[in-house]
């Protein structure tokens, strides 16, 4: 089965594009959502995260996301350690999910494909991009976050230029209808490519 990566920086609208692919009956695995679910469900992850961050990592047996975010925000070492705990579990969960799918291809939506050098896991990669001001505006509305916080997240992520260089397809998501029409073209190409597999 052909695995296609879908990525993009914060506020680029990759979740919206992922939903569009789902509307075309393409199974989509949202890595971030599954990671959060596993962090709340897996006893092994809970134990390891508490060992790394302390008991405050969980409140009433639920992941204390704000506490974790504050710990890893400017600490790349801690972030790497957390990823080393969570990512292998997400990878094995994805493999199990993949076996159950029956479609020409599947999409795995993940924010940090290039940052973690995971390109090799995908046959093709689609990157969603949007103007920086629009991205900031979207995230401010969605997360009720400050402009400064969002800008610092954007600055911590790989630039769109770098992502575009490494991608097979790019969707410009400033206007939704235009983005959908680009997604449709890519979908048709991927259907053709899946036949040649």
Largest sheet, in brief, is: 5 strands, parallel
Helix-and-strand structural type = alpha/beta
Contiguous runs where pLDDT drops below 50 for at least 5 residues: none
Number of helices: 9
The percent of residues in helical segments reads 55-70%
Number of strands: 7
Series of secondary-structure elements, N-terminal to C-terminal: EHEHHEEHHEEHHHEH
Provide the CATH architecture of the largest domain: 3-Layer(aba) Sandwich
Broad shape: globular
Domains, number: 2
Distance between the termini: 8 Å
Strand content: 5-15%
- What is the CATH C-level name of the largest domain? Alpha Beta
The radius of gyration is 17 Å
Name the quaternary structure.
single chain
Fold and architecture overview:
- The chain is of the alpha/beta class and 197 residues long.
- The protein is built from nine helices and seven strands; from the N terminus they run βαβααββααββαααβα.
- Strand 3 and strand 4 form a beta hairpin.
- Helix 3 runs antiparallel to helix 5.
- It is globular.
- The mean pLDDT is 94.
């Amino acid at each position: 089965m052909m695995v296609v990566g879908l990525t993009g920086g914060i506020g680029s609208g990759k979740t919206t594009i992922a939903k569009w692919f789902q509307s075309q009956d393409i199974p989509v695995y949202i890595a971030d959502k599954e990671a959060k679910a596993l962090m709340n469900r897996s006893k092994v992850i809970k134990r390891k995260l508490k060992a790394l961050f302390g008991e405050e990592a969980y409140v009433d047996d639920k992941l204390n996301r704000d506490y974790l975010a504050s710990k890893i925000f400017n600490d790349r070492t801690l972030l790497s350690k957390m990823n080393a705990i969570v990512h292998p579990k997400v990878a094995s969960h994805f493999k199990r999910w993949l076996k159950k799918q029956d479609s020409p291809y599947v999409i795995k939506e993940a924010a940090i494909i290039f940052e973690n050098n995971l390109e090799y896991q995908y046959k093709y990669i689609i990157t969603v991009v949007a103007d920086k001001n629009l991205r900031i505006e979207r995230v401010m509305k969605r997360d009720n976050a400050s402009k400064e916080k969002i800008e610092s997240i954007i600055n911590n992520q790989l630039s769109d230029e770098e992502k575009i260089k490494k991608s097979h397809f790019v969707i410009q998501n400033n206007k939704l209808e235009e983005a959908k029409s680009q997604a449709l073209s890519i979908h048709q190409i991927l259907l053709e490519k899946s036949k040649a597999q």
